[in-house]
Amino acid sequence: LCGFLAGGAWACGLLGWARPERWLASGSLFPLSCIHTSTSLQKSGIWEKKNRIVYPPQLPGEPRRPAEIYHCRREIKYSNDKMWYLAKLIKGMSIDQALAQLEFNDKKGAKVIKEVLLEAQEMAVRNHNVEFKSNLHIAESMSGRGRYVKRIRYHGKGMFGVMRISRCHYFVKLVEGPPPPPEPPRTGFDQAKEYVQQLRSRTLVHTL
Amino acid sequence: RVVLLLSPLPRLRALLQRCWTRLERGLPPAFPGAQSPPWGPALAVQAPALIPEQVGGSRESTEAPGLWDSILWMAAPKKRRTIEVNRCRRRDPSRLIKVKTNIDTCPECGNLKQKHVLCGYCYAKVKAETRLIRVEIGKKEGGPWKAPTVETVVLYEGEKPTAKDEGKRIIERARKRPSWFAQN
């Protein structure tokens, strides 16, 4: 079939998942040498490290800093565009409301996000000194693009297309406390006020 | 999804050419091996009408098939849709997922449920118990097509059949009666 790409490059890309060093745990083949290989099972990302920051102790007069919990799940077998809609749904809700909405949503990503939220809630109570598990709200919820692989999709009459197997990541930041009240929508009066303010704040340049 | 049309496929090109020339002549695009439907008596065609059709047919067979001309009239995007335009379309409020306002809590078990739908947890609980009752029924009947023509009554531990249960089939379950299964 004359449809194959240049064999070497394509095979490299196709078997990208089958890199041998990823299968071996560090140092399993050579028990005597305790060499820590650089490719660990999970590349530590920025979001995972955010949980490790430690603030200096607060002064007596300061208001209490609300607890922040960062959690994520990597390489979910779902499309980034579709996951974005679910992430947008949950932004700014309390965790109970978010779980309720996700439970009765029919999308595949809803189930995944629900698991992530429950894990994060449990982490919050166990490790991050959160008193009430309902007293959390979702400050940030985002989806990111994971690694894509290309595969052949067979059409009729010997024709083929190249399809992308897409994966995504999901990131969530839970903050202790009730959810912030939603912003009132910008009215015409607000816009007019801002315009007038802009006109008034003009100054004369290059003058005496 | 991009479909790659490989031009050096001679068989496909020849097939398309043959189909098109047959369509031009007014015949059905029958593939090799198919029988054409029996034609009825055709009207007598006048001589001048035949000649332009023959001329048209001969012209078509020498030049490239007309399929390639009609591609110019097909709809195709003129410009690439910018990411701003794409975002406006994808993030339009009609496409965002709407927040549901019909979620309540089940008074029995406290799980979430939709107002017009049975509670999932309670339904699963009842379904599991029903499955076990059906297993008992299966053991009693001993095979398919052996259901008796009388009613069935399910009795749990420590329950005796009452006078009302005369002539009914009794199924025993070796556990305490569940709170949600009312006894008549």
From TrEMBL, chain A:
What keywords appear on the UniProt entry? Mitochondrion, Ribonucleoprotein, Ribosomal protein, Signal, Transit peptide
One GO cellular component, as annotated: mitochondrial large ribosomal subunit
User: Pfam families from the entry?
Assistant: Ribosomal_L22
Single GO term (MF): structural constituent of ribosome
Q: Where in the cell is it found?
A: Mitochondrion
Claim: Phosphoprotein is one of the keywords in the record: no
Q: Does the keyword Ribosomal protein apply?
A: yes
**SUPFAM superfamilies referenced in this protein's UniProt entry, alphabetically:** Ribosomal protein L22
The stretch of residues making up the signal peptide is 1-20
Query: InterPro entries annotated for this entry?
Result: Ribosomal_uL22 (IPR001063), Ribosomal_uL22_bac/org-type (IPR047867), Ribosomal_uL22_sf (IPR036394)
Recorded coiled-coil stretches: none
- Major localization class: mitochondrion
Return one Gene Ontology term, BP aspect.
translation
PANTHER family the record matches:
CHLOROPLAST 50S RIBOSOMAL PROTEIN L22-RELATED, LARGE RIBOSOMAL SUBUNIT PROTEIN UL22M
Family assignment from sequence similarity = Belongs to the universal ribosomal protein uL22 family.
* The name this protein goes by in its record: Large ribosomal subunit protein uL22m
Q: What is the lineage of its organism?
A: Eukaryota, Metazoa, Chordata, Craniata, Vertebrata
Automatic annotation (TrEMBL), chain B:
Q: Which GO terms describe its molecular function?
A: structural constituent of ribosome
Q: Which GO terms describe its biological process?
A: translation
Tell me the domain of life: Eukaryota
Q: Where in the cell is it found?
A: Mitochondrion
Per the record, a Pfam family? Ribosomal_L32p
Cellular component aspect of the GO annotation:
mitochondrial large ribosomal subunit
Give the primary localization class: mitochondrion
* Protein keywords: Mitochondrion, Ribonucleoprotein, Ribosomal protein, Transit peptide
SUPFAM superfamilies for this protein: Zn-binding ribosomal proteins
**Cited InterPro entries:** Mitoribosomal_protein_bL32, Ribosomal_bL32, Ribosomal_zn-bd
| Signal sequence range | none
What is the annotated role of this protein in its UniProt record?
A: Component of the mitochondrial large ribosomal subunit (mt-LSU). The mitochondrial ribosome (mitoribosome) is a large ribonucleoprotein complex responsible for the synthesis of proteins inside mitochondria.
Q: Which family does it belong to?
A: Belongs to the bacterial ribosomal protein bL32 family.
Q: What is this protein called?
A: Large ribosomal subunit protein bL32m
